[in-house]
Input
Amino acid sequence: MKQQSQRGPQGPQGQPRQGSRGAVAGQVRARQFAVPLSATRRGARLARLLAAEQLHAWGLPPDPARLIVAELAANAVLHGRVSGRGFRLGLSVSLQGVLRIEVTDTRGDALPVRERAAAGPAESGYGLVLVEELADRWGVRGGPPPCKTVWAELDPGRPGPRHPPGRRADWTSAKAWAGRA
Output
């Protein structure tokens, strides 16, 4: 298990390096957590449990982040599995309080589909629909070969489709907390 509490990779004049692992272009990370896990059902469950523990340690609410981690980890196990290889869970909070969830697997050729085809009711295939509803943003980043990373972000204190009317996630404390790093 690897945990970093530094500001992130720095380039010349203390600016974040573009494309640095753990830093999004122009965003310095206040807190980071990353752990490799086995590409099994047990590894997916452990990802969810470790994410909840890390969010608790950072003083952040577990949901909806825990649900997003569960879906992305399950997808990595079901669709991104390569025999003998695992997946990586990454969590980070920017200085602005944005929580970023990343799951990296070794099947860069198997990209997720953003929209589900209207083929009628099914027992599976709704994981990314759930991620789309819960996250403020999500996407896929390729590389380094043969890997891909599916990521999702949650903004602090912003009501959105992931919250019932009149309710907000308590991410405002995350923004205040991130400034203390």
Summary: Residues 1-25, 160-181 have pLDDT under 50 and may be disordered. The helical segments are 41-57, 65-79, 127-134, 172-178.
